[in-house]
Amino acid sequence: MIICTNKMEYTLKTQSQRVQKQMMVNGEKERVSLLFMKALVSAGSMDAVSQQMASHPQYLESFLRTQHYILHMDGPLPLPYRHYIAIMAAARHHCSYLVCLHSAHFLRVGGDPLWLHGLEAAPARLRLLDHINKVLAHQPWLTSCSHIQTLLKSGEQCWSLAELVQAVVILAHCHSLCSFVFGCDTNSDLAPLVSASPTGSPPTFCLFDAANGNANVPQSPANPSEHITPRRSLDSGCDMACLKERIHKSQGARDKREELLLQSQTLQTLQPTDLEVEEEMIFFADLTRFSRFTTDPDFCYQEFARREDDHFQVFRVQDYSWEDHGFSLVNRLYSDIGHLLDDRFRSVASLPSLHSPDLKRAIWNYIHCVLGIRYDDYDYGEVNQLLERDLKLYIKAVACCPDATKSPVCPRSMVPLKTSERIHVNLLIMEARLQGELLYALRAITQYMIA
């Protein structure tokens, strides 16, 4: 009996030591990962979007893993298709940086240069995505079972269910990333400067201003320019010398990056750009005529709350949620992507920079509400209590029509925040929008499957 007890104690002690050792290993890996990312940032080897996100390294790692998986890892779609779909998504919001970036990647993975002349030169299968692309980008509540049926039953040009799910994930990922790019005002710094004519106008109607006891608050500001500045007119003849000088300066940083990659493999394959891509982006200034990759340029965001059509009903999360429905469906049709997306959603919600969970939830639920998604168990009066009017205007502009806002004025209520906290707000906007688009698309796919 004594021997048996000693053996049990020894076993428990050994297991405890193993657990502690594993925790130390995991902690060391995380520490190395964070140090590696910080080193890349200081060496200037990260693209500007990742540099912004690097103030939240735990989130950045989750974001890069997801992006690398959907664009570069095994999946039903060929690599050129993935980057072309990303170009189509970015073009809806006139995001020159993402259009240029994915044009460069498209050619590097063997894409046909003729496709970059515009949608008419692309295969018919890709052209079929144009409608769902514009709907998800601007009015995702219009996504219906009929759209899914059209794509899956188009004769020789039809999509498989797995291909369509990956395409939808790429579209939603790039749409929401456009919001982050414009929200952080990095688009003008990252891409060749081109002239762009935005579709639509910045939203000036705050959904909660006339609700929950605020009925006397006007629905639109007397002077919208006090809150949102119009897109600057950009000269299409960008200063090529300055851009080449940037590339020249980055060559020294490239050597440092290669040395760092030898020291750590944690994020070696996760960097979205490198020097070659930056060099190639020089040659895509003329390709950012966004009308090449889109149709129906007048189709833009409209106020969901003001729609009078009875058939556009509110999307109730209690009936179809990410946790109970979307996650399992997307993970089944596109292996592992559900886990990666879920990690992103959890990561952005757990970041410590905005210490109030109520504030994070108010931002998240407000974005979903302007997209027609409601939570029955949430008191929307908290939105007015926690978010000032100028902040709501900013959030809505970045989430719903970033291309029309270019560089939103930082709301007064955000001025006291640290830079990392402002970035956290933009990350919440991006992730809430991503989940909202996915919910509409996955619900339509579910309805098709059970029809």
Description:
The chain is mostly helical. It has one domain. The chain is built from 18 helices and 4 strands. It has helices spanning 2-42, 48-53, 57-72, 79-92, 96-108, 124-127, 130-138, 145-152, 161-183, 187-190, 240-263, 275-281, 322-333, 337-350, 357-370, 381-386, 389-400, 419-450; strands at 228-229, 315-316, 373-374, 407-408. The strands form 2 sheets. It has a two-stranded antiparallel sheet with strand order 1-4. Helix 5 (96-108) crosses helix 12 (275-281), helix 9 (161-183) packs antiparallel against helix 18 and helix 14 packs antiparallel against helix 18. The longest helix is centred in the first third of the chain and has 41 residues, at 2-42. It is globular. The model is unreliable at 1-5, 22-27, 39-44, 190-241 and 257-276 (pLDDT under 50).
List keywords for this structure.
451 residues; mainly alpha; two-stranded antiparallel sheet; two-stranded parallel sheet; 18 helices; 2% strand
**Total domains:** 1
Give, in spatial order, the strands making up the sheet with the most strands: 1-4
Q: What would you call the structural class? A: mainly alpha
Q: Strand portion, in percent?
A: under 5%
| H-E string | HHHHHHHHHHEHHEHHHEHHEH
Radius of gyration: 23 Å
Q: What is the overall number of helices? A: 18
How much helical structure, as a percent, in the residues?
A: 55-70%
* Beta strands, count: 4
Report the uncertain regions.
1-5, 22-27, 39-44, 190-241, 257-276
**Overall mean confidence score, pLDDT:** 76
